[in-house]
Amino acid sequence: MKIKFCGIRRLEDVAFCNELQPEYLGMILSSGFRRTISPETAEQLVKAKSRSIAAVGVFVNETPEHIAQVLKQVPLDVIQLHGSETAEIVSGVRWRTGLPVWKAVQVQTAADIQAARQLGADQLILEGKAGGMGITADWELIAGAKPAQSFLLAGGLTPENVAEAAARVQSDGVDFSSGIETGGVKDYAKMKQIVTIIRGV
């Protein structure tokens, strides 16, 4: 099962990732959010990360042109769309950047998952009603929907609940942000605990 640590903002956070080796390191690159960082900071963080970790840039309701412009400065590996983007935007971002495009979906009904499949994203991120707020997704609903598309489970995941969530939902990976923080800052002990739980090391 793959691990994504999101909301990375500091060189210390990258150092934690370099030691623990999640598959993905996510950075918020749209303005107006608590974990938003500038392209300049993102460029520094990407340069500091291990090559084995893929850099995911998270964008909220941005144009394909804007995302492509950011990519000129920040060498990302994956584009994650976290707003109300349409299939046309997903396609446009992929065409403009040449990168895999992920789409986050706030799941309230099984129909939300079915609708998300029509967006043409390479992978989905299924989360609770308010992404990034530590609100747990409805694991039973997602498990019952049996998503056919590859997806990461997000939303309120912590060292205390990730084992149960992973067992119930059978996702391809797990995505953490607030659940690996203490006082709004990434917490190495929590990150290490999650890697130990998922990988048994």
Largest sheet: 8 strands, parallel, barrel
Termini separation (Å)? 13 Å
Number of DSSP E strands: 10
How would the global form be characterised? globular
Structural class: alpha/beta
Counting DSSP H or I runs of 4 or more residues, the number of helices is: 8
Stretches where pLDDT is under 50 for at least 5 consecutive residues are none
Explain what you see:
The protein is of the alpha/beta class and 201 residues long. The protein has eight helices and ten strands. An eight-stranded parallel beta barrel has the order 1-2-3-4-5-6-7-8, surrounded by four helices. The protein has a two-stranded antiparallel ribbon with strand order 9-10. The longest helix is centred in the C-terminal third of the chain and has 12 residues, at 188-199.
Structure in a nutshell:
The protein is α/β, with parallel strands linked by helices and 201 residues long. Helix content is 37%, strand content 20%. Helix 4 links the parallel strand 4 and strand 5 (101-106).
